[in-house]
Amino acid sequence: MSRANLSKVFLALAAIFLVLAIATLIPVNSPVMSDLGYRSWCPFAPYSTLALLFGAGLCQSLRKHLKTLPTS
Fold first, then answer.
1. Cα 49 to the chain's mean position, in Å?
2. Nearest 5°: phi and psi at 4?
3. Neighbours of 21 (CB within 10 A)
4. How far apart, in whole angstroms, are the C-alpha atoms of residue 56 and residue 42?
5. What residues form DSSP beta bridges with 40?
6. Cα dihedral: 41, 43, 45, 47 (round 10)
7. Which residues contact 7 (CB under 8 A, 6 or more apart)?
8. Is the torsion defined by CA of 33, 36, 39, 44 positive or negative?
9. Residue 23: which of 1, 7, 3, 45 has the closest Cα?
10. What is the per-residue DSSP string for the chain?
11. What contacts 48, CB < 8 A, 6 or more positions away?
12. Over its length of 72 residues, how does the chain's per-residue pLDDT go in tens digits?
């Protein structure tokens, strides 16, 4: 896989992780209350949100690292 394609994959993964992190915080009628004190899509919020944000940051770090590697 070329560097350009790999960079695009990491960008897409980071975007997906970011959208999912935001989605975990959306309030809905659910039977379980989250640790934030309201009912959200994910009962594990804010921990799942932080894990997804970490994944997005990791993808971005890997993407930046790819750009700093010398071309061969």
1. 8
2. -65, -45
3. 21
4. 18
5. 27
6. -140
7. 63, 66, 67
8. negative
9. 45
10. --HHHHHHHHHHHHHHHHHHHHHTT-B---SS--TTSS-BS-TTTTHHHHHHHHHHHHHHHHHHHHHHSPP-
11. 21, 24, 42
12. 888 899 999 999 999 999 999 999 999 988 888 888 888 888 888 999 999 999 999 999 999 999 998 886
Rounded distance between C-alpha atoms, residue 24 and residue 52, angstroms: 9
Q: How far apart are CA 34 and CA 27, in angstroms?
A: 10
Structure tokens at 71: 């071309």
With 0.85 as the threshold, say if the pTM is over it: yes
Cβ contact 45:25 at 8 Å: yes
